[in-house]
Every structure is written in C-alpha cells, then in structure tokens.
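seq:
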Amino acid sequence: MQKEYINSEEMNEEDEISEVQSDVTDNGISALINAKHNIHCLTVIGQIEGHYILPPQNKTTKYEHIMPALVAIEQDRSIEGLLIILNTVGGDVEAGLAISELIAGMSKPTVSIVVGGGHSIGVPLAVSAKRSFIVPSATMTIHPVRMNGLLLGIPQTLSYFERMQERIINFVSKNSRIKPERFRELMMKKDELVMDVGSVVDGETAVKEGLIDSLGGLNDAVECLYSLIEEKDDNSAKPITDKTQKKATKRKISAVKKASKEGTTDNACAVSGKSVVRVHPFKEYHPSARMSKDGR
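struct:
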C-alpha cells in the first residue's frame, strides 16, 4: 500500500508538470517555478493573418487569437508584465496596427524584443511596447504600404494608401524616438531593395535611428521588464499626499484666495484628492449690518 501511495504521488507531480508544459506550449504563459515575477510571453511569428486566411503552409499569427489574449492579459491580476518576442515578415496592415494599438494602450509593463526580423508592419508592433530591444543580428524592413491583387487604378486608391501610410508613420513616431520625416525618408529610400523602395536596418542601426530603444538579448529584455514591474509597484505604494501634490494644492488655494479678494468669484473651490477647500469672498464689515432678531 505504501508503494502505491508513492506512485500515485509521483503521478500527481507528473500531471502538474505536464499541465505547466501545456500552458507554456498552448497559451504562451511563462513557467512560474522560481520566477522573480509572473510575466506572460507573447510570440508574433511568421506572417500576420488578417481578414483573409493564408495558405496552410504559411506560418501565421492570427489577429483574432492575439487580440482576446491581450484583453485577458490586461485583466489578469496574476500577470505582472508582458514580454513580446517578434520574428515576423509582416502581413495584414490593419490587423498589425490594431494589435499594436492594443499593446500601446495596456497599463501593465510591456517589453518587446526583435529576433530574426521585424519587417513591414512588424515595426509598429516592435515600438508599441513601453521598452523595445533588438538583437544585433536582427533586421527591420521599412517600406511603403503596398497590396497585391486586383486594384482600381483611380486617385482614391492612391489617397487611401497614402492615408494608411500616414497612420503607420504617426504611430511609429509617437511610440519611438525617430522623427516622422526620417522614418518617411527610410521608407522611400531607393537603390536598397530589389524591385521595391525602402530600407533594411540592422539592430545597431535601428537603435541609432531611434526606432528601437536598446540593443540587447533575452536577459536584457527580461531584466528590463522586471525593473518596470518593480518601478510600477513602488509608484503605486507611494502615498497620495506627496510633496508635489501638497505644493500644487497650496498654489491652488492661494490662487483661489487671491481671486476671492479681488471679487472675481463668489464661491471658489480648490480640490486636492478627496479634500475640498471652499473659500468665500471677503465681505466688508459695517455696524449697521448687525441686527437683532426683532429688527432693531
């Protein structure tokens, strides 16, 4: 009986290990054994699939899978940060831009790392995180928006492409240190891509151009994510009434009092956190204004 009990205990441990391994394989959750912080690892690989299904031989990242996963990560209290690993050739422009906007709008610490390549719409995905890394051997291809298939050769089509391109340029420039003019210059560069315009930048060049924050590997990205998590915890632990807020409250109260003396307001209110300070205008005292209850 003792031997059967030991075997059943070993079976339970094996079931737990297999369950963790299935989570890592299917859901991308990082293993939590002896981890400093609980982070979620999200991989964007192959071609980003949008509204049209790609051939089965293509390695794809489906946006209808990524978007609900991002919502779940944002709501899950046990997940402290998000690590995004990118090795993509690009894909559907609107699907990639939609994923990028969701990542940029997350409240949790996010760090991205480009390994292999972050081409085309992979550029907005890389810069959407709060901190971005790239390995030295990785490359990023920057080129104008293009589509294949049957298109109408009318001015409205070209205007649509131009507006979509401006959306990408604005997003990249707002979420990185590169200027819109420089990014547009790299996008329209000639004599670098075969049968196309654009440019290919390696890891070091991407950091010099301000497209990516830092040059580094997996350890650098994970340590940076840990530091962002700890920094967020420290900021949330700070009291609400700090020195800066107290100074701001004093400035508000003094401004309200000044306005009240000048008679520019009848009932001024200065708000600081949960405390409300009401200041009424000063009235000139006159003996005749003081009357008894019987009117004398």
